[in-house]
Design goal:
With 416 residues, the chain is of the alpha/beta class. The chain has two domains: 237 residues, 3-Layer(aba) Sandwich (Rossmann fold); 164 residues, 3-Layer(aba) Sandwich (Rossmann fold). The chain is built from 19 helices and 15 strands. Helix 4 crosses helix 7. The longest helix has 21 residues.
């Protein structure tokens, strides 16, 4: 997941915007909109956008629009789709307000003075579908798409109302207030979306409960980029471990607040407990911007690896993965990543329910999390036998080809 943005961007080639935006209309075409640069943000949502764009490129002409730091619009040809980086519009809320009021003439008059908005509106007119990732992006694009007679699809990361309540009840009060405000936008755009793709069945139930939408909601989970095989170096040799020593892994970026809480739990409670009870066990923490936690390590059984170019060797070297997550979005992408690598996972009940009951997922509460990890480690030889079965079951559910085909089928259903 972490190396994908770098690797895929190398295959992208600059193209002439005038060629990329010919006036010829393609019937089976889709525009995907994302409010962040997918090659500068390395998280689960950005990966979902990149890979879904690639997979849909097997069935549609795909144009992916992202807001970036560029001073002008530019385009690059990628694997299966065309990426268009658009400068952030200065007046998105005003544009959205005019669309919601149905004042189409005034909106286009405004667009005449804003090449960025005009550029997007012209492109919407040439595609049958508009897929917006997250409600904030949909707030501007959605109304315009409906006025143009296009099929508008929303893919939120989670129910903002639920996330707002989670964070407000924790010590992230300000962030919780912002998310609760964002839920107003999310509820608004979900009402006129013809199709809503959510990351898990849990999120689908939240949309039904809080926003009153049901018939248009379908699950589209994130996939994984797992690649197994031989690698040039041995992780265990690198960190000085024997092959039979239990190795536990946690994967997550250090700038995510939920991951920060998890890492502090590992350093302050789990690691000291395992050092005392099962001293041969080691813990790896992998992810961009986690290096700053090295100064907080108090035990000898923790390795803060930090960001890596390729995570496959570390996943293959590990015996057990952990997800001590209490605050999160619609799906635990790290659990999917672990399962795709064939790793058994000890996860909180809260995190595990977003991927439903799966082989290899061991649920527990935070109060007994350290005990559950210790119990699995004590039977690690039996658990290792399950790795290939865990991987095969995850492949059947979370492969990108399956995810892309399922979305394509749903898009066809709303065009009939």
């Amino acid at each position: 997941m972490y190396a994908e943005a770098t690797n895929e961007s190398k295959s992208c080639q600059d193209v002439d915007s005038r060629l990329a935006f010919s006036s010829e209309r393609t019937v089976k075409s889709i525009n995907i909109f994302f409010h962040r640069d997918v090659y500068k943000v390395r998280d689960g949502t950005a990966m979902y956008v990149r890979r879904l764009s690639r997979e849909l490129g097997r069935f549609f002409q795909v144009n992916l629009f992202v807001y970036g730091e560029a001073k002008r619009v530019y385009s690059v040809r990628c694997n299966g789709y065309t990426l268009h980086v658009v400068p952030r519009p200065r007046i998105p809320l005003l544009g959205a307000f005019l669309m919601l009021k149905g004042n189409e003439k005034l909106y286009y008059s405004l667009a005449a003075f804003s090449p960025k908005i005009y550029f997007i509106s012209k492109r919407i007119a040439q595609a049958e579908y508009a897929l917006c990732i997250d409600a904030y992006c949909a707030f501007m694009i959605g109304p315009l798409s409906r006025i143009e007679g296009k099929k508008f699809v929303l893919r939120p990361n989670d129910c903002h109302f639920s996330m707002g309540l989670q964070t407000f009840c924790s010590f992230f009060r300000v962030l919780g207030i912002l998310m609760l405000f964002g839920s107003i936008v999310e509820k608004l755009v979900s009402k006129y979306a013809q199709l809503i793709l959510v990351p898990s069945a849990e999120t689908a139930s939240l949309f039904e409960r809080y926003y009153g939408v049901r018939s248009t909601v379908y699950v589209s989970p994130p996939g994984s980029e797992a690649e197994n095989g031989n690698h040039e170096f041995s992780v265990r040799r690198e960190i000085g471990m024997m092959e039979d020593q239990p190795l536990v892994v946690f994967l997550g970026t250090g700038d995510n607040f939920a991951n920060q809480v998890s890492i502090r739990y590992i350093l302050n409670r789990l690691a000291p407990f395992l050092e005392k009870e099962i001293p041969m066990t080691k813990i790896m923490i992998i992810g961009d911007k986690t290096e700053r936690f090295r100064r907080d390590v108090k035990t000898s059984n923790v390795y803060v690896i930090g960001g890596v170019e390729e995570i496959a060797p570390y996943m293959e070297a590990a015996d057990l993965a952990i997800a001590p997550v209490e605050i999160m979005g619609g799906v635990s992408a790290k659990i999917i990543e672990y399962l795709y690598r064939g790793l058994p996972v000890v996860a909180t009940t809260f995190a595990a329910k977003t991927v439903n009951q799966r082989l290899g997922v061991f649920r527990t509460g935070m109060d007994s999390f350290h005990l559950a990890v210790a119990n699995i480690i004590k039977t690690i030889q039996d658990v290792r036998i399950l790795r290939e079965r865990i991987r095969q079951e995850a492949l059947a559910t979370f492969s990108w080809k399956k995810i892309g085909f399922d979305v394509k089928t749903l898009l066809d259903s709303i065009s009939n």
